[in-house]
C-alpha cells in the first residue's frame, strides 16, 4: 500500500526561536562517532555511576558541568530558503537554557503543569514513575498523561523554542519554553510519544530531543528527528514528508540514540496511551558531583527524592527540635517529590489524579490546617485593573513548638513561593504564622520559582509584613506567646493600677498564661498596651480626637 503524504512539516527540524519557522528542514547528518561508551550502571544502588577520577566522563554527565566542552563545527549549511537567513541555535543553548531551573523539582513541576493544562481536553491523570532502560539497565523518568495529545504539527511546536499555543488565562504554561528547559534539566535526552485526533484524523508521533546525540555527532544546530504515523485505519501507516529516505533516516537516528532498538519497540510504547495522550521518557539522567544519580529512587518505593537535599545533616543524630522541624512539610518539600506535589496546586482536583510511582498523591491544604485563622482582603494597586486577593493567615497546628512561618503564594493555582518569609531574621515576631494566597496579578519568572520584582510585588511584600505584625499583636497570646506590650510594662513596672486597670491586667494575664482551664481555646482577646499603659484602642481614640481637633481649628 502506498505511504501517505501530508501537509505537516518534515520530520527533521532545526530549532529556531521563530514562531513561524515551523517548516525549516535539515537533512540528517550521516556522521557517526567511532564508538559510544555506554555507562555501566547498577539498579537499586548508590554506588557512583562514574568514577570521580574519570573527570571528563563525570563532567558531561553532571548537569552543572555538561556545557563545559566544545561541540566542534560540522560546517553543514542550513537549507536554502530564498534570500531569508535563519538564526541558528547551537546545541549548547539547550543546556544553558535549562540552567534557568536551579532545582530539579521545579523542572518536574513544569512537566506536571503541561498535564494539568490538559484537563480542559479531558485529561484524568498524569503518571510519574521510574522505568528501566533495557539497553544499559539504567533508570529513566516517565511522564504519562491521557490528555488531548499532539498531532504532527503540535509536536513540532512543542519541540520548538519560545512557541506557545496556550493563550487562556487559566492555563499555567505561557512561555513555550517549559518542555525544553525541564527535560534537559532532568536528563541529557528525552523521547516523546504522542497520539491525537484532529479533524477526524488519528495520528501518532515520536520525537527525540537528544543532547547526547547532538554532542557525540558534533552538530552545530539543534536537530530533532521525528516520525509520524496515520492510525485512522487498522494499522500505523507512515506519514512521509519529503522523501522516503528522509523518513527512514529519522527512524534510524531515533533507534540509534534512544532506548529502543527497533521500530516494533517504538510502536509498543503506544499500547498504553489509548486514542489520545502523551508519554515522555527522560533518560541519561544527570548525576551529582559524586557521580551518583541526582534523583533518588531507592529510599522510598512510593517517592522520588533529591539525594543531595535529603542527605543534608548526614548520619549524625539530630536534636528532637531539629528532627521535628525536618518532619514538617515546609522542610520535606525540599527533597520529597510526593510532599512537594501534595501542595503544588491550590485547588483540589475533582476528576484528576497525579499518580507518583503507582500511588495517587493526596493534596495537602495548608489553609485547612491553620488554627485561629482569619481571611484578610488585599486590593493591589493596578493600572486600569481591579483585583481583590483573599489571604488566609493563621498559626500552624504545631505552634509554638515549631517556628515555621511564611506565605505560600500561588499563581493560577500553581505554587510559586512556598513558605516565603517576609519578616526579618532574628525576631520572634511572626513565628508559627503561615499564610496562603493566590496572586494572579503578579508575573512569575520563567522557572516559576519566584516572581518578577515589580512594583506590585514590592507593595505585596510590604502588605504581607504589615499583615503578619497585625495578626501577631492580636493573636500571639492564643498559642502561648506574650503580647508585645506586656513584657515591657512588666520590666519597667508600668502595669496600670486601679479598678479599671484590674480588668486590663486580668485580660493581659490571660494573654500571657493562655485562656482559663476548661475553655474551648478559641477566645480572641485583642487588648495590647503601649509603654504608657494605655490600651491601643484608647490610644487610637485619642489620636482620632486630636486629628479631628486639628481639622476644625
Automatic annotation (TrEMBL):
<keyword id="KW-0067">ATP-binding</keyword>
<keyword id="KW-0156">Chromatin regulator</keyword>
<dbReference type="GO" id="GO:0006325">
    <property type="term" value="P:chromatin organization"/>
</dbReference>
<dbReference type="GO" id="GO:0005524">
    <property type="term" value="F:ATP binding"/>
</dbReference>
<dbReference type="GO" id="GO:0003723">
    <property type="term" value="F:RNA binding"/>
</dbReference>
<keyword id="KW-0943">RNA-mediated gene silencing</keyword>
<dbReference type="GO" id="GO:0006281">
    <property type="term" value="P:DNA repair"/>
</dbReference>
<keyword id="KW-0378">Hydrolase</keyword>
<keyword id="KW-0227">DNA damage</keyword>
<dbReference type="GO" id="GO:0031047">
    <property type="term" value="P:regulatory ncRNA-mediated gene silencing"/>
</dbReference>
<keyword id="KW-0255">Endonuclease</keyword>
<dbReference type="Pfam" id="PF13589">
    <property type="entry name" value="HATPase_c_3"/>
</dbReference>
<keyword id="KW-0234">DNA repair</keyword>
<keyword id="KW-0175">Coiled coil</keyword>
<comment type="similarity">
    <text>Belongs to the MORC ATPase protein family.</text>
</comment>
<protein>
    <submittedName>
        <fullName>Protein MICRORCHIDIA 2-like isoform X2</fullName>
    </submittedName>
</protein>
<keyword id="KW-0540">Nuclease</keyword>
<dbReference type="GO" id="GO:0005634">
    <property type="term" value="C:nucleus"/>
</dbReference>
<dbReference type="InterPro" id="IPR036890">
    <property type="entry name" value="HATPase_C_sf"/>
</dbReference>
<keyword id="KW-0539">Nucleus</keyword>
<dbReference type="InterPro" id="IPR041006">
    <property type="entry name" value="Morc_S5"/>
</dbReference>
<feature type="region of interest" description="Disordered">
    <location>
        <begin position="21"/>
        <end position="53"/>
    </location>
</feature>
<dbReference type="Pfam" id="PF17942">
    <property type="entry name" value="Morc6_S5"/>
</dbReference>
<feature type="compositionally biased region" description="Polar residues">
    <location>
        <begin position="24"/>
        <end position="53"/>
    </location>
</feature>
<dbReference type="InterPro" id="IPR045261">
    <property type="entry name" value="MORC_ATPase"/>
</dbReference>
<keyword id="KW-0547">Nucleotide-binding</keyword>
<dbReference type="GO" id="GO:0004519">
    <property type="term" value="F:endonuclease activity"/>
</dbReference>
<dbReference type="GO" id="GO:0031349">
    <property type="term" value="P:positive regulation of defense response"/>
</dbReference>
<feature type="domain" description="Morc S5">
    <location>
        <begin position="335"/>
        <end position="472"/>
    </location>
</feature>
<keyword id="KW-0694">RNA-binding</keyword>
<dbReference type="GO" id="GO:0016887">
    <property type="term" value="F:ATP hydrolysis activity"/>
</dbReference>
